[in-house]
Design goal:
The chain has 495 residues and is α+β, with helices and mostly antiparallel strands. It contains six helices and 28 strands.
Length: 495
C-alpha cells in the first residue's frame, strides 16, 4: 500500500517556554524506515539562501549535520548529496515541490524569507517556527521520500548564528531519517542555565536554554538511530529489557519509559514510550542496550509535548491517551515497599539476551498536578541540575518514602565558591520565600532527614529544590543515600 503523508509531522518552535526517542512513524507496529538498498540515501538541496546564510553556507551546515548522523558507529545508515532541486523554492512555488509532489527528490528546502512557513502554518508563523520535517511518502514500512523546510526569516530577524542553529538542523534531519522526539532530561533543558544543555538529546521537542551547547548526538539519539538502522552485530553485542505497564488489568500506552545505566548521570540514558510497537498496548522494549545494570522508571509525557512537538504516538492532543489519567512517576521495584516510588531494583543486561517481565503493576493513583515539572529522584541516586542567578531551580526533584527508612541523607555539591540553599518540602513544593533547610558551606549543603528533623521523615513525598544566592549560574549534583549502622555520618554538618 502506497501512502502519501501531507501532514507536517514535526517542527521546532523558537520558544523555550514549553515547559521519546523512537520511530516517527509506525505501520502495523513496525517502524517506517529507509530501506538499506537506498543507502547512501540521497538528499536534494534547495538552490536559494537561508536567511543570513548564503546557499553555500547553508549547504555546508546540512553536510556537517548529515555527516554527524552518518558517523554513529552502531548504525548502518549513510547519506549522499543527490544534486540540487530544479529551482529556488519559495512561497510562490513551494506547492509544486513539497508533500511528495516532486517524485525522485528528498527536498531540503531553504525558506529564505519565511514565505513557505507562513503559507503552511498561517500568518506570523515565520516568527515562531525554526523548521519542520515529515516523511512525505511511504510504502508500508519503507520510506520513499522525506522533506525538511528550514525557516530563514526567524534567523534573520533574531540574528541567529550558525552555531545556534546547528542543533535545529540536526533535529529536523533526524525526523527526515525517521526519528521521533525524546523528552529525556527535560529538567535540565529549560532550567535557565545553558551550560548543561549539552546533555539534552538532539531529538528533544523544543529549543533549550543555549542551543550552541548542543553540537553532538547524545547516547539516546545514537541508540534510537541504531535501533532503526542497526549495523551488523549490534544486537549480538548488546542486550534488551522488555516489560509491560498495567493498571490492574488495563494496559497503559503512552507513558515515557527511561532506562538509565547504574552509576551514570548524563550518559547511558535511553527513553521510549509504552505502546510504541504495540498499538494501544502497555508494552515497552529497550533493544540494543550496552551491557550493564540499569534503573528503569516511568513518567507521564509532559503535557506541553503534544501535537507537532509530541513525544510518542499517543500525544497528539490534550485528550490523547498519554494525558488520560497518567500514573505518577515511579521506578521499577520488586520490594515489599511498593508505595515507595523512589526505591529501585537494578536490572541486569547481558549481551545477546533479553531481560523480560520488567512489569509495572499500577494502582489507580493519578499523577498529581504539583509533580508536573518535577524530576523523579531515586533512593539512593544521583542527579544533576542547575539554578540561574538569584533564583531557584525551575524543575524541582521529588522523592517518595515508604516507611522502611530510618534516615535519608540529601546532599548538594557545587563549586566551592557557590552560594545556595537546599530546600526540602514535605508534601508541598518549596517556595521562593521559604527559609532554607540547609545552606552551602564551601560549595556543599547537607540535610539529614530523620523522624525528628524539620521536615520529619515520614511516609510522604518530598520536593527538593536549590536556590542560588549568587550572581552566576550554579550547576550542582544532588545525591541521596540511606545511612546504616555501618555508615559514618557527621551529624554536626546537619543544622
Amino acid at each position: 500500500m502506497r501512502i502519501r503523508l501531507i501532514l507536517i509531522f514535526s517542527m521546532i518552535f523558537t520558544t523555550a517556554l514549553t515547559w521519546a526517542g523512537g520511530p516517527l512513524q509506525i505501520w502495523n507496529d513496525q517502524a517506517v524506515v529507509w530501506d538499506s538498498s537506498t543507502f547512501p540515501v540521497p538528499y536534494h538541496l534547495d538552490q536559494g539562501a537561508l536567511g543570513p546564510f548564503s546557499a553555500e553556507e547553508a549547504k555546508s551546515l546540512i553536510e556537517q549535520a548529515f555527516a554527524l548522523w552518518s558517523r554513529v558507529a552502531t548504525s548502518s545508515i549513510s547519506f549522499m548529496a543527490g544534486g540540487a532541486m530544479p529551482i529556488d523554492i519559495d512561497g510562490a512555488n513551494y506547492l509544486d515541490y513539497i508533500d511528495g509532489r516532486a517524485p525522485g527528490f528528498n527536498p531540503i528546502i531553504f525558506d529564505d524569507d519565511g514565505g513557505i512557513t507562513e503559507a503552511v502554518f498561517g500568518q506570523n508563523a515565520q516568527n515562531d517556527i525554526l523548521g519542520f520535517a515529515s516523511i512525505t511518502e511511504s510504502n508500508e514500512t519503507t520510506i520513499l521520500s522525506s522533506q525538511v523546510v528550514f525557516n530563514g526569516a526567524y534567523l534573520t530577524a533574531q540574528n541567529i548564528s550558525a552555531a545556534a542553529y546547528q542543533a535545529t538542523i540536526l533535529h529536523e534531519l533526524g525526523h527526515w531519517i525517521g526519528l521521533d522526539h525524546s523528552q529525556l532530561l527535560r529538567h535540565i533543558a529549560n532550567d535557565g542555565v545553558g551550560s548543561n544543555d549539552v546533555w539534552t538529546p538532539i531529538m528533544f521537542p523544543t529549543t533549550t536554554d543555549d542551543e550552541t551547547q548542543r553540537t553532538l548526538l547524545t547516547d539516546d539519539d545514537q541508540w534510537a538511530l541504531s535501533n532503526l538502522y542497526p549495523r551488523d552485530g549490534f544486537h549480538e553485542s548488546t542486550g534488551s529489557i522488555r516489560g509491560l505497564i498495567q493498571q490492574y488489568t488495563e494496559e497503559k500506552p503512552g507513558l515515557n519509559v527511561i532506562a538509565r545505566r547504574v552509576g551514570h548521570v548524563t550518559d547511558h540514558i535511553y527513553s521510549t514510550v509504552s505502546g510504541a510497537f504495540d498499538t494501544l498496548g502497555g508494552s515497552f522494549e529497550f533493544n540494543g542496550l550496552p551491557v550493564g545494570d540499569y534503573q528503569v522508571y516511568i513518567e507521564p509525557v509532559d503535557l506541553f509535548y503534544r501535537g507537532s512537538s509530541s513525544v510518542g504516538r499517543y500525544a497528539a492532543t490534550f485528550n490523547s491517551l498519554s494525558f488520560r489519567d497518567p500514573p505518577p512517576a515511579q521506578y521499577f521495584h520488586t520490594g515489599d515497599d511498593r508505595i515507595n516510588r523512589s526505591r529501585w531494583t537494578p536490572i541486569s543486561v547481558e549481551a545477546n539476551s533479553t531481560n523480560n517481565e520488567i512489569n509495572f503493576d499500577l494502582n489507580f493513583d493519578i499523577a498529581s498536578f504539583d509533580e508536573n515539572d518535577s524530576q523523579l529522584f531515586g533512593l539512593p541516586d544521583e542527579q544533576i541540575g542547575a539554578a540561574p542567578p538569584n533564583a531557584s531551580t525551575r524543575y524541582q526533584y521529588i522523592m517518595t518514602l515508604g516507611g522502611n527508612e530510618t534516615a535519608v541523607e540529601i546532599k548538594v555539591n557545587s563549586a566551592p565558591d557557590s552560594l545556595f540553599d537546599l530546600l526540602v518540602g514535605m508534601e508541598r513544593r518549596p517556595g521562593a520565600f521559604d527559609l532554607p533547610t540547609a545552606s552551602s558551606v564551601n560549595g556543599n549543603a547537607k540535610f539529614l532527614l530523620t523522624p525528628s528533623s524539620d521536615p520529619p521523615l515520614q511516609i510522604a513525598r518530598y520536593f527538593i529544590a536549590v536556590r542560588n544566592r549568587s550572581e552566576v549560574d550554579a550547576p550542582f549534583t544532588l545525591t541521596t543515600q540511606t545511612p546504616t549502622a555501618n555508615t559514618r555520618v557527621d551529624y554536626e554538618l546537619y543544622r
